[in-house]
Specification:
Elements (H helix, E strand, L loop, with lengths): L1 H23 L3 H15 L5 H11 L6 H21 L10 H7 L3 H20 L3 H14 L7 H19 L1
Length: 169
């Protein structure tokens, strides 16, 4: 039974990964369609890691900045569900068992700088600079947990670029 659940979890992440490949390949519409179908399948009580990952990338498929913000907020909410499930009795909330598996892993901590960076960019697009600054500060604070690798360096550079852009506006 546990093996079936693990295989099912892997299948969901595989499907998310396939939609991400479509997105990165330039097929935003098909990626959006696949993410939407997966989101419906997962539901509100679905695995928090799946919901966070899916919403994080679904935001990138949106044409409207308000819709992009809504998806980025869903991703942050799901990530916070992972964090909440890490505390005492972590497996009791929806997605908690999966969160316990990923507790304190670099992959989970690595979500936060990117999530807050995306929110900062969303708020800037929506001409809400105060909210953008708050999330940019949160992105920078969370970035200290990133490794000194290509991903970590890329996220920190993106934070610097957005901060520079905000100063110039």
């Amino acid at each position: 039974m546990v093996e079936q659940q693990e295989a099912s979890d892997d299948a969901v992440m595989t499907r998310i990964g396939q939609a991400i490949m479509l997105l990165h390949g330039g097929d935003r519409e098909e990626a959006r369609n696949r993410f939407g179908a997966l989101w419906s399948e997962l539901g509100a009580d679905g695995d928090a890691l799946h919901r966070c990952t899916l919403a994080h990338y679904m935001a990138d498929t949106q044409d409207d900045p308000g819709d992009e913000l809504a998806w980025d907020l869903r991703a942050l909410t799901a990530a916070e569900g992972l964090r909440a499930a890490e505390g005492p009795g972590g497996g009791e909330e929806p997605g908690g068992a999966r969160a316990a598996e990923h507790r304190d892993t670099p992959a989970v901590r690595a979500f936060y700088p990117s999530l807050h960076l995306n929110l900062a960019a969303d708020y800037l697009k929506l001409q809400r600079p105060d909210s953008a600054r708050i999330h940019l500060q949160r992105a920078r604070a969370a970035a200290v947990s990133l490794a000194d690798d290509g991903y970590g360096g890329g996220v920190r550079a993106a934070i610097d670029r957005l901060e520079l852009r905000m100063r110039e506006e």
